[in-house]
Amino acid sequence: MIEFKNVSLVYPNGHEGLKNIDLTINRGEFVVIVGMSGAGKSTLIRSINRMVTPTSGELIVDNEDILKLKERNLRKLRTNVGMIFQSYNIVKRISVLRNVLAGRLGHTGTLRSLLGMFPQSDLKLAMSNLERVGIEEKAYIRASNLSGGQQQRVSIARALTQQPKVILADEPVASLDPPTSHKVMKDLKRVSKEDGLTTIVNLHFIDMAMEYADRIIGLRNGELVFDGPIEEVTELT
Ligand code: ADP
Ligand code: ADP
Q1: What is the 156 CA–ligand 1 centroid distance (Å)?
Q2: Which residue stretches of 33-95 are H helix?
Q3: Pocket residues for ligand 2 (CB within 6 Å)?
Q4: Backbone angles phi, psi at 91, to 5 degrees
Q5: Which of helix, strand or coil describes residue 30?
Q6: How far is the CA of 229 from the centre of ligand 2 (A)?
Q7: Looking at the CA of 35, which ligand is closest?
Q8: In this entry, which stretches build a coiled coil (predicted)?
Q9: Interaxial angle between packed helices 148-161 and 120-132, expressed in degrees from 0 to 180 and rounded to the nearest 10
Q10: pTM of the model
Q11: Which tens digit of pLDDT belongs to each residue from 136-189?
């Protein structure tokens, strides 16, 4: 599903964000990337939807080398790849449902979405995804009235409503307290598996990674230093 072939990324200031990454992630895997702050986790994840662009190598997503895509041709990729951020990135002054419907923008076309019109099927899909993350009763309230955990559930529902093949989650629980973090990770894993999505999550706590990952990838200074199932993780330390 996703294949990094000797991928490197040098930032304009000369800093090497990723160094010669070789990595294959299979369809349906739930992969967690661990590493200290500055290890390159964000850079790696953001390469997969071209929020950042590696400077060499090949990066295959769904049978296409996305490093060859021109900036103007990124819409299909971004629709295929849902993104979840630490800071939720939801629009607080509009309703929860409108936030979730934003997941359809890549499908619906700009004019219709500018007019705020979505097909009935999109509404049904958005509502069912809110239900899957347990906040359907919040659909019509302003997103600003939600707790952090609820806001992150909105962003999960939005990503699902996009009907992507891949979900990238960049430190999705770093702003949440431990009990809420676990609930959100559980929900994320469950819905990913239900939809057969390939999911890549950055976390900076190894114990959390061990609990949810099918497979763990370790990064240090932009280099891949570990790749394996959780049973082998003792080698990491
Ligand atoms: P992590 O997500 O593991 O904390 P990042 O991928 O955010 O790591 O960053 C990896 C390294 O690249 C860090 O040293 C960071 O300071 C550096 N970096 C990130 N973005 C840029 C940028 N735009 N320009 C230069 N260096 C950057
Ligand atoms: P986070 O990893 O949570 O996004 P950071 O503070 O690492 O937070 O990065 C915030 C923004 O600054 C990101 O867009 C990142 O690419 C950029 N950035 C990080 N480190 C550097 C750096 N050394 N030089 C330039 N930009 C950077």
Answers
A1: 25
A2: 41-47, 75-80
A3: 13, 42
A4: -95, 115
A5: strand
A6: 30
A7: 1
A8: none
A9: 140
A10: 0.88
A11: 999 999 999 999 999 999 999 999 999 999 999 999 999 999 999 999 999 999
